[in-house]
Amino acid sequence: xxxxxxxxxxxxxxxxxxxxxxxxxxxxxxxxxxxxxxxxxxxxxxxxxxxxxxxxxxxxxxxxxxxxxxxxxxxxxxxxxxxxxxxxxxxxxxxxxxxxxxxxxxxxxxxxxxxxxxxxxxxxxxxxxxxxxxxxxxxxxxxxxxxxxxxxxxxxxxxxxxx
Length: 163
Fold this sequence. Notes:
This protein is of the alpha+beta class and 163 residues long. Helix content is 33%, strand content 33%. It is built from one helix and eight strands; from the N terminus they run H-E-E-E-E-E-E-E-E.
């Protein structure tokens, strides 16, 4: 038989092992959630930046922006949009893209519904013959717990190819 003291020591050791194991499991699950959230934010930001950059590289007729603006409008020279005026703008935490501002079709969202774009700015630098567009974006996860929330700050400068 076992004495009462031996039984209490065994239960105490077992309880400590279970507490440590469950703590490690909870930490691992939070790390997985954080990684998944970070990947979603990075994917959404990467897609939006790449789409905006591609359009700007093939764009012409850029406006003279005074300072910084949260929208940009220019003429696209992309093969399937040749000569149409396009616009990117920040509306209610999402980046909207209008591929032809002259039609009645509503702009489309190019960022994920799992993210919120906290800031988007366009700055036009350079000369009229060689413009440079600098894009600054702050994007963060939405609808996640506070301990796995993720945010990113991104900046890139693009020079149009077709001048």
